[in-house]
C-alpha cells in the first residue's frame, strides 16, 4: 500500500517508508496538531533530580489504556478526527490494531529524545510501532545493544519508520539534538497496548 522510495540500509526490524502522506496533507496535519493538541512537558526523575522532558508530548488512546512510559503514567486524551482517520488507514495497511498514539513535538533542533527502546510490557513481546514524521527532517539513530554499531537516517516530512520483530529487544534508538535545525517537527508513534 505504501511506497518504499528510499531504502537506507537498516538493521532487521526497521523499515523506512517514504512517502506515506503527500507533502501538502502532511503540512495541514502538522498545523492542525500544533494548534489543537494539548501539548505537555512533564518532568521525569533522572538520578534523583526532576527535569522537564526536552520536547512536548501528548498521549492519545482508546479510553482506559494507561501507558507507563519513561517513568510517567500517561492518561490518554481522546482521538481527534485526523488521527482517528490515520489510525484506521494504518490498521488496514498493517493488518493489526493500533489503539494508541504517542505524539512528540520537537520545537526546534534543541529538543530531542535520548537512547531508549519501546519495550514496555504493555506493548507485548514483538510490537509493531509505526512512527510518522511531519515538519523538519531530523536525524534518527539506531544502536545495536550488543555491538554498539550505529545507523543513522533522516526522517523526512511525510515519511514513516516501521519498527517490528526484535527491533526493541536488540536495538536502542534516539533522536539526537541538531543545533542548526530551527524548525519544528511532530512525530506520531502508533502503538497497540495489550492487556497485561
Ligand atoms: O521522534 C522520533 O522519531 C522518535 C520517537 C520515539 O522514539 C518514541 O516516541 O518512542
Ligand atoms: Fe521510541
Automatic annotation (TrEMBL):
<feature type="domain" description="Fe2OG dioxygenase">
    <location>
        <begin position="97"/>
        <end position="194"/>
    </location>
</feature>
<feature type="binding site">
    <location>
        <position position="185"/>
    </location>
    <ligand>
        <name>2-oxoglutarate</name>
    </ligand>
</feature>
<dbReference type="InterPro" id="IPR005123">
    <property type="entry name" value="Oxoglu/Fe-dep_dioxygenase_dom"/>
</dbReference>
<feature type="binding site">
    <location>
        <position position="119"/>
    </location>
    <ligand>
        <name>substrate</name>
    </ligand>
</feature>
<keyword id="KW-0460">Magnesium</keyword>
<keyword id="KW-0234">DNA repair</keyword>
<dbReference type="GO" id="GO:0051747">
    <property type="term" value="F:cytosine C-5 DNA demethylase activity"/>
</dbReference>
<feature type="binding site">
    <location>
        <position position="189"/>
    </location>
    <ligand>
        <name>2-oxoglutarate</name>
    </ligand>
</feature>
<protein>
    <submittedName>
        <fullName>Alpha-ketoglutarate-dependent dioxygenase AlkB</fullName>
    </submittedName>
</protein>
<dbReference type="InterPro" id="IPR032852">
    <property type="entry name" value="ALKBH2"/>
</dbReference>
<dbReference type="GO" id="GO:0035516">
    <property type="term" value="F:broad specificity oxidative DNA demethylase activity"/>
</dbReference>
<keyword id="KW-0479">Metal-binding</keyword>
<dbReference type="Pfam" id="PF13532">
    <property type="entry name" value="2OG-FeII_Oxy_2"/>
</dbReference>
<dbReference type="InterPro" id="IPR027450">
    <property type="entry name" value="AlkB-like"/>
</dbReference>
<dbReference type="GO" id="GO:0008198">
    <property type="term" value="F:ferrous iron binding"/>
</dbReference>
<keyword id="KW-0227">DNA damage</keyword>
<keyword id="KW-0408">Iron</keyword>
<dbReference type="InterPro" id="IPR037151">
    <property type="entry name" value="AlkB-like_sf"/>
</dbReference>
<keyword id="KW-0560">Oxidoreductase</keyword>
<feature type="binding site">
    <location>
        <position position="104"/>
    </location>
    <ligand>
        <name>2-oxoglutarate</name>
    </ligand>
</feature>
<feature type="binding site">
    <location>
        <position position="173"/>
    </location>
    <ligand>
        <name>2-oxoglutarate</name>
    </ligand>
</feature>
<keyword id="KW-0223">Dioxygenase</keyword>
<feature type="binding site">
    <location>
        <position position="116"/>
    </location>
    <ligand>
        <name>2-oxoglutarate</name>
    </ligand>
</feature>
<feature type="binding site">
    <location>
        <begin position="67"/>
        <end position="69"/>
    </location>
    <ligand>
        <name>substrate</name>
    </ligand>
</feature>
<feature type="binding site">
    <location>
        <position position="191"/>
    </location>
    <ligand>
        <name>2-oxoglutarate</name>
    </ligand>
</feature>
<feature type="binding site">
    <location>
        <position position="106"/>
    </location>
    <ligand>
        <name>2-oxoglutarate</name>
    </ligand>
</feature>
<dbReference type="GO" id="GO:0006307">
    <property type="term" value="P:DNA alkylation repair"/>
</dbReference>
Amino acid at each position: 500500500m505504501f511506497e518504499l522510495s528510499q531504502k537506507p540500509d537498516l538493521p532487521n526490524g526497521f523499515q523506512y517508508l517514504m512517502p506515506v502522506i503527500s507533502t501538502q496533507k502532511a503540512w495541514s496535519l502538522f498545523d492542525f496538531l500544533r494548534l489543537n493538541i494539548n501539548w505537555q512537558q512533564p518532568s521525569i526523575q533522572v538520578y534523583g533530580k526532576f527535569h522537564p522532558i526536552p520536547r512536548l508530548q501528548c498521549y492519545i488512546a482508546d479510553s482506559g489504556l494507561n501507558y507507563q512510559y519513561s517513568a510517567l503514567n500517561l492518561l490518554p486524551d481522546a482521538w481527534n478526527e485526523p488521527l482517528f482517520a490515520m489510525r484506521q488507514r494504518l490498521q488496514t495497511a498493517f493488518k493489526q490494531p493500533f489503539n494508541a498514539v504517542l505524539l512528540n513535538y520537537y520545537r526546534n533542533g534543541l529538543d530531542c529524545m535520548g537512547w531508549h527502546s519501546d519495550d514496555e510490557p504493555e506493548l507485548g513481546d514483538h510490537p509493531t510501532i509505526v512512527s510518522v514524521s511531519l515538519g523538519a527532517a531530523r536525524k534518527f539513530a539506531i544502536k545495536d545493544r550488543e555491538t554498539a554499531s550505529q545507523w543513522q537516517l533522516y526522517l523526512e516530512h511525510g515519511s514513516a519508520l516501521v519498527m517490528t520483530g526484535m527491533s526493541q529487544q536488540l536495538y536502542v534508538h534516539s533522536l539526537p539534538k541538531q543545533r542548526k535545525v530551527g524548525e519544528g517537527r511532530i512525530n506520531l508513534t502508533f502503538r497497540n497496548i495489550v492487556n497485561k
